[in-house]
């Protein structure tokens, strides 16, 4: 019994020991779990409170993508609704470096597809920027290859590349844009803010594979397209002027040339041509001197084309009448130790014959009789010494000194167009005053948007004075004057030739260079059009009546025929004055002229010719792709013409462009 009692007393003690161990284990486990639980809560709190914004942004980058859309730049139209400048949709490549996992591999693939330097690409892709341009305005083949490569962080976006369907037509007037679509010169620069397309940003969602789900239309409903501009230029007249000018400059080996056509009733500039031509599609391949709008920028001494204004001022101030006689000194006269010469020796000439034969000596004597201040007032009233007011970039005001600074010889020289610097636009504006019965009015190049403020017409000469000067100018063409080569049978023309010496190097004296020019006003008794042509440094013939007058005749013939002002019975048979002769030559004739009930086949045509065909239906198509030849079209040939609207949106006309050897986009 005693032994049993001792055993019983021993067992409770062992049990208590085991219980204590279990309890310690439970406490330890509980402590561990509590510590872990507390650590997790602390971590969660830290993540939520301190890392929350950063992680939220990172998560957004994984399932959301910000994209942008650039609006189309406004178009430029001519007064006859021809399209002068438009924008073609093209693809550009940009990168989001933060999304790129392997910049080296991505750069290698891009270099193979785009032909860009791999090292430069890798450097850009290794940055931590959110946006980097890779290559702008790529072709369709490159865009397709990139889409198939499916490179993370490399994206395609749509941009608009500026295109000028008529190539060099009015190139210096239109100007051009840079790769970002910013207007740099000409009308593109003048109305850059108006025509520039807007930019819309919107967010798209991505699935687990990174594919974009366009569920958010934010920004796509905004009107981000630029506004259009309409010029007074008529493409038919412009083309006629460019062809005649190019022929005159090349035939007489000139350095450059300018031609202009102005409608008298409105002051609208129907043509403003320059040669050498400038193709706005390829500005980087052209020298800055060729891109210059010489009519607005270049200052020259006008020579004898200035004489009609001297005669008008003298008549207005009653210094002379058309029949007053002047001694022309047999072609050589010394004034203040300097010699004034005429091309041909004349003795006694009436005032009207002084202008007809363009005598410098007779004109100088009339100027001396008039006086410096009255002549200066006339020149200022005509707009010399100030900008023409068209708003073109860098319009020049020319050079006109104050009358008090003139010497006696200065007055004599300025009477026949030396010692004064003018631009072609200023000359056109001055002749517009004469043709408009002595009332000065502004030239106009832009129809839409209309000018906010226009100067009030101001009378410079009486109508009688203007008629008298035009009558004397008519003798220059229709009698045996210096401009008789410009004569058009059945059409009365008032005109004036100019053969002006150019100032020599460093502005000292006169060099051997000549500016040959001619101005024609048609019809002389009731003017409707003004024609101007100037050729810089022609050789070996230098006279305006030989070099420039035939070009004016050519432009006037075609313009009058185009507007139905040319008497049919008087048109020489050898002259081609049909409308078709005044349009640019297309390499392929159209398969249809667009007048039928169904859409013609435009594939294989040049862009310009296709637009002409569609223009007859009042349709302005949407252009896609690169190149200058139509490779595909929608609607297809033979389908009905699209109803409603003139653009290619919502089922309208679409033309795909290529080089002629690539398959059209389907």
TrEMBL record:
Position of the signal peptide: none
Secreted as UniProt keyword: no
Residues of the Penicillin-binding protein dimerisation domain: 71-212
Subcellular location: Membrane
A Gene Ontology cellular-component term: plasma membrane
TM segment ranges: 21-41
GO molecular function annotation: carboxypeptidase activity; penicillin binding
Region (Disordered): 572-599, 625-666
Alphabetized Pfam families for the sequence: PBP_dimer, Transpeptidase
Domain Penicillin-binding protein transpeptidase: 257-555
InterPro entries, sorted: Beta-lactam/transpept, Beta-lactam/transpept-like, PBP_dimer, PBP_dimer_sf, PCN-bd_Tpept
Superkingdom classification of source: Bacteria
Keywords, sorted A to Z: Carboxypeptidase, Cell cycle, Cell division, Hydrolase, Membrane, Protease, Transmembrane, Transmembrane helix
Gene Ontology terms: biological process: cell division; cell wall organization
Name of the protein in question: Cell division protein FtsI (Penicillin-binding protein 3)
Organism this protein belongs to: Humidesulfovibrio mexicanus
């Amino acid at each position: 019994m005693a032994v049993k009692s001792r055993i019983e007393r021993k067992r409770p003690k062992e049990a208590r020991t085991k219980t204590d161990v279990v309890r310690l284990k439970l406490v330890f486990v509980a402590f561990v779990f509590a510590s872990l639980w507390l650590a997790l809560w602390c971590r969660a709190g830290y993540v939520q409170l301190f890392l929350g914004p950063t992680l939220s942004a990172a998560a957004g980058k994984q399932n959301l993508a910000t994209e942008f859309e650039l609006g189309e730049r406004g178009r430029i139209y001519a007064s006859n609704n021809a399209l002068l400048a438009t924008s073609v949709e093209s693809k550009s490549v940009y990168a989001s470096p933060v999304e790129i996992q392997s910049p080296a591999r991505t750069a290698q693939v891009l270099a193979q597809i785009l032909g860009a330097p791999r090292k430069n690409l890798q450097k850009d892709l290794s940055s931590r920027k959110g946006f980097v341009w890779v290559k702008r305005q790529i072709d369709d083949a490159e865009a397709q290859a990139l889409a198939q490569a499916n490179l993370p962080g490399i994206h395609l976006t749509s941009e608009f590349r500026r295109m000028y369907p008529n190539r060099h037509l009015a190139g210096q007037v239109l100007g051009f844009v840079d790769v970002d679509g910013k207007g740099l010169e000409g009308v593109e620069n003048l109305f850059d803010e108006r025509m520039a397309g807007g930019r819309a940003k919107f967010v798209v969602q991505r699935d687990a594979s990174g594919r974009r789900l366009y569920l958010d239309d934010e920004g796509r409903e905004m009107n981000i397209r630029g506004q259009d501009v309409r010029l007074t230029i008529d493409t038919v007249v412009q083309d006629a002027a460019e062809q005649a000018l190019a022929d005159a400059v090349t035939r007489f080996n000139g350095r450059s040339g300018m031609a202009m056509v102005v409608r008298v009733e409105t002051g609208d500039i129907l043509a403003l041509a320059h040669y050498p031509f400038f193709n706005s599609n390829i500005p980087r391949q052209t020298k800055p001197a060729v891109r210059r709008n010489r009519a607005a920028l270049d200052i020259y001494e006008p020579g004898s084309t200035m004489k009609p204004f001297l005669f008008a001022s003298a008549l207005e101030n009653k210094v002379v009448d058309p029949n007053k006689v002047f001694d022309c000194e047999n072609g050589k006269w010394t004034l203040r130790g300097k010699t004034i010469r005429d091309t041909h020796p004349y003795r006694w000439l009436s005032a009207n014959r002084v202008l007809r034969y363009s005598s410098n000596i007779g004109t100088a004597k009339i100027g001396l009789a008039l006086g410096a201040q009255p002549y200066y007032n006339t020149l200022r009233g005509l707009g010399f010494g100030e900008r023409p007011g068209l708003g073109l970039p860098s319009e020049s005001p020319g050079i006109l000194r104050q009358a008090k600074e003139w010497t006696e010889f200065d007055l004599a020289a300025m009477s026949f167009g030396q010692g004064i610097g003018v631009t072609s636009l200023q000359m056109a504006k001055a002749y517009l005053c004469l043709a408009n019965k002595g009332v000065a009015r502004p030239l106009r190049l832009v129809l839409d948007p209309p000018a906010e403020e226009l100067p009030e017409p101001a009378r410079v000469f009486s109508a009688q004075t203007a008629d008298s000067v035009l009558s004397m100018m008519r003798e220059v063409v229709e009698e045996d004057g210096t401009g008789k080569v410009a004569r058009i049978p059945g059409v009365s023309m008032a005109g004036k030739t100019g053969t002006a010496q150019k100032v020599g190097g460093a502005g000292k004296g006169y060099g051997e260079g000549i500016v040959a020019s001619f101005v024609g006003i048609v019809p002389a008794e009731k003017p409707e059009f003004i024609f101007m042509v100037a050729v810089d440094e022609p050789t070996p013939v230098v006279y305006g009546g030989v070099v420039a007058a035939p070009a004016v005749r050519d432009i006037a013939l075609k313009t009058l025929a185009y507007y139905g002002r040319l008497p049919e019975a008087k048109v020489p048979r050898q002259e081609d004055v049909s409308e078709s002769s005044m349009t640019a030559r297309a390499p392929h004739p159209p398969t249809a002229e667009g007048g039928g009930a169904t859409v013609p086949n435009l594939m294989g045509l040049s862009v310009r010719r296709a637009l002409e065909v569609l223009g007859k239906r009042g349709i302005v198509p949407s252009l896609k792709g690169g190149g200058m030849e139509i490779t595909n079209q929608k609607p297809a040939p033979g389908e009905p013409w699209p109803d409603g609207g003139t653009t290619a949106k919502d089922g309208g006309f679409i033309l795909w462009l290529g080089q002629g050897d690539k398959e059209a986009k389907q």
